[in-house]
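pasting for ref
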Amino acid sequence: MKSQILLGAVFLFSVSVTGTGCSQKISTPPSSHTIEGNVRIGPHVPLWMMHGTMTVIVYMKGTTSPDYLPVAVTEYYHPVFPVHFRISQKNIRLSGIDLKGNVRLVAKLSLESGSSLVSSGEYVGMTSGEVPVGGPPVNLLIDSPATR
């Protein structure tokens, strides 16, 4: 009987602390200076590559250059796929650059192995064209060996 009363008290306390469970989760809209999405891995990428590092790199056209320049990067060590990424102004690596407009994204999975049992390698996936900063989520597929 005492255990039932104690169990009831614990239940009432947990309900009063956590609420009824019907609260709505408020999601913040994506910032106009943010890129987010998911990176998946293709079926031909060796499983040992999961012990490496995945990077997502943002390339923008320079104001004085027609070439795309790497301006932002985020890294994930020993990734578990699919990986959700979010790149914002804090990931910018060049001073004076605002993350806005249209960009290209490249996801790389790299492994530098010092072992004779596991080979080093690098696989990549990229957007087929430009994507807008602050736009819908971007899906990248790492599926091709990198050319060096």
